[in-house]
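Re: your question from the hallway

Yes, I did run it. Sequences:
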Amino acid sequence: MFQNVVATIRRLVGMPDYQGYVDHVRACHPERAVPSEREYYEQYLERRYGAGTSRCC
Amino acid sequence: MRRILWLLIALAGAAGWGMLALHRGETVSAAWLVIAAMGTYLVAYRFYSRFLAQRVFGLDDRRATPAERHNNGCDFVPTTRWVLFGHHFAAIAGAGPLVGPVLAAQFGYLPGTIWLVLGVVLGGAVQDFVILFGSLRRDGKSLGQMAKEEIGPVTGLLAMGAVLAIMIILLAVLALVVVNALKGSPWGVFTIACTIPIAVLMGYWMKVWRPGKTLEASVFGVTMLLLALVAGRYVAESATLAPIFTLTSIQIAGWMIAYGFLASVLPVWMLLCPRDYLSTFMKIGTILLLAIGILVVLPPLKLPALTRFIDGTGPVFAGKLFPFCFITIACGAISGFHALVASGTTPKMLRRESDARMIGYGGMLTESFVAVMALCAAAVLDPGVYFAINAPASVLGGNLQAAAETIRQWGFVVTPEQMNALAGSVGEASLLARTGGAPSLAVGMAQIFSGAFGQGLTALWYHFAIMFEALFILTTVDTGTRVGRFMLQELGSHVWKPLGRTSWYPSIIITSAVVVAGWGYFLVQGVMDPLGGINSLWPLFGISNQLLAAIALCVGTTILIKSGKARYSWVTLVPLAWLLLVTLTAGYQKVFSPLPKLGFLAHAALVEAQVAAGTAVPNAARLIFNDRLDAVVAGGFMLVVLLVVIMSLREWLLVLAGRKPVRMSETPFVQTAETA
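Structure:
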């Protein structure tokens, strides 16, 4: 229950969902290495604020 | 049973409109405005958006979405529609829908309400929906890519250049709103200044101390922010601290320009990302609070339905009801910027095609409702107070007595004592001529909040509202500068390759400086403008935003025609035609109107004549140059929109006449694996 609320808030604000990603990789790509939370956060920053994103007034 | 329910909703909406239309000369409860808007939204959502989803777009739940086909656990993630709705709404809601309706309240509450509600139902929500649909069927491609692939490479390039130019004007005008909200306000400046160290602390927390723990850092950040808000009162009352945080317009503008540059150059984890979280939390929280406040208090609307300023003589901005009401309220009714969000992250997260209806169409209806609430917050003010806050000082006269007399001549009543008492109650030295919309919105919100959640805290609520507006405008300024920098780097790489390397410091510094100089120039122009700047810059922003919407609707129409739905293309052609009429008329008037108050060129000529006649006009050469620059910018926007429309029209005719093979870039059908 608490985990769901936290995941929902993360999605709403557009925060990284590390646990969700880990679950996804374990379920769908078991051959891949799972990044650490720090690595995942750094990749997330690049995706969210890197070139090719846009914002609204 | 269902039918009876919808009949009742439709009747309630109609009753709301009836009450608004018939109650002239006496105050109407905001309840009627809310009922009219909600009734119309619900009926439009139930019937029109279903028609769009099923007949026009043919949304198909058997078709796998990009989120399902490319699911990578990061950006392509199938997301529950309610969560995605919130995410999409938080991305499209900005300062635009809050400021525009407050400014347009100079015509009275009725024109703004009608345009907000009808505009969104037939225009804005359709635009967001059609672009979301187009991008959904193209693996989440952006608006620029779709323009390039569906209409032509020149259109794609024009769209990209237009986005950059619009961004510059948008950042300047929003920054000006913040300058006007914070000038001479130590409380406001202190609170906003505190957001920077708070954000840096949060940044270190999330990156260094406890990597990735964004939520706990945000809880800390929001708590600190609220403490800073409360502490602001003691700063404002302290004889030693207050002067340090009391800044003039030009000082605030300078700090903002420096901040925008730093935010674009520094790594994102340090400033940008934590501020982004803070402002999203504040935005969602405050909008919910405002909705609850309005529904609990249901305040009477003191502003008349229509004011005499529909004739174009208004002090807040120049120009008649048509076309300027439809330019001033851009976001909230129809906003081209949403096309960028609807073709950004959202299409990559849809779980089912049919969810696009609630998120694309429904999300925009919600934004329109936020704009209606902002209009309510402005309309709960006494009209005299509204004009005392929103008219520029040069029109009102230098002091409270002169201002009260000017406003009396307009037919409204406000006394100097009333203004002093109001300023005192919100903890400000003066509320006279605080143009830009933010202060009057904050006064209105403070009245509503203290009505709903307890009296006696008016000053705190006022500064809460100012902090909330300034916080997320500054977030637009910093992310916008960065986005502008990336665009410039991409465009610049065509000229000199190394410029395109997005993490090469010399390129970062050069392009950031160019973008900041661009909006900074217009910001300083606005600050020094004797009419307050909002007067000239806000219409320019409105025109540019509607221009982007016109480009988006051209792309949408092309998609419909190419997919063999030409008989339904009126759904995008009707709002497109209206936008063209409004944008081109307004643009033409801003450039060529013979009235110096309205036309840029006429104003330049007036200043020139004054100088020739020997009148001392401060900064005359600068004023004349700025007028001409604004005229060129407005003319350029009009030229771009005409070019895009002509090229789209050519494409449509060629396709319809069968003289050009239909080449769509829609991805082929893949059956979904999900069991519905």
